[in-house]
Amino acid sequence: MDVQVEGSGPVEPFFAARDLFEREATLDDPVTVRIVEDPDERTRVKHTADGHTLTISQQAATSAMARELALHEFAHMHHHERGHPSHTQSMEEVIFLALAGRTVERRKLTHCRQIANHMKDIYADDLWLSVAPAGKLVDFLESSVASALADQPSAPAWDRFGHEAARTSAASDPEITAVNAAFALGLVERHNLVEPDHRLYDLAHAAAADAPEIDFERFKGWFRSLSADPDESEYRKTLVDATREYAGGNGPAAD
C-alpha cells in the first residue's frame, strides 16, 4: 500500500495502520493523508481516479484513536475499490423504494442516511477489527451512548469518522438515539467485544426505553446480523426494510 502523509502532524499512526491493514487486505490505489490545522475540519475521504485522499484535522491526527481512525477509513477505501454493495448502493433509490408515496419528516430522511452510514461502518469495522484491538472503539461507543442520554450538545458525533451524517441530542430526537444505541450494541455483539454485564447494555436499554416507538431489538438484529458478503439485491432489501421501519410516514409505500 502506498500511503503518503502531508501537513503538520504525526505520520506514525497512519503508517502503523497501513502495516496492520496489510495483514488482512490491501489497496490498489495510493492514499494521501492531508493533516490540516482546522480543529473543526471533519474527517473525510475523497475517491478519484488518482487515488484516495483522507483529510483529517490535526486534533484528530494526534488523538488516541488516530490509528483506529485510519484503519477504519482504509477499510472504507477497500470496500469502495471492490464495489461492495454497502458502498455503491444509492440512498436516493432506497428512499424511493421504501417511501414513495409517503409523507415523511425531513429530519427522518436525514436519519435514514445515518442508518445507511451505520451499515457501511459495520462492514468497515468487520475488516479492521480482525487486525487491531477493539478496546478504544468500545470506549468510544460507550461514551457516545452515555453522552446522548445525558443530552449534551457537545457529545461526540455518532459519525465518529466524519461521514455525511448528523447526530442530534437525545432530547430532540430520542428515536435516532435509540437506533444509534442499537448500532453500538449490534456491533459489539457481532464481534463479541463485551461481556453481558458491560455498561453499554444498560445505556442502550435506557435509550430504547426513551423511544418505545422504535423496535430496538429489530434494529440491533439488523446491525448484528448483516450478511458478511451480501449481493446487491440482498443489501438493497435490508436497507429498504430498515428505512421503511424507521421513517414510516403517511400513505402507501412502494412494493
Automatic annotation (TrEMBL):
The organism encoding this protein is: Halovenus carboxidivorans
Superkingdom of this entry's organism?
Answer: Archaea
Q: What name goes with this protein?
A: Uncharacterized protein
Could you tell me which Pfam families the record lists for this protein? DUF5781
What are the top taxonomic ranks of the organism? Archaea, Methanobacteriati, Methanobacteriota, Stenosarchaea group, Halobacteria
Q: Known InterPro entries for this protein?
A: DUF5781
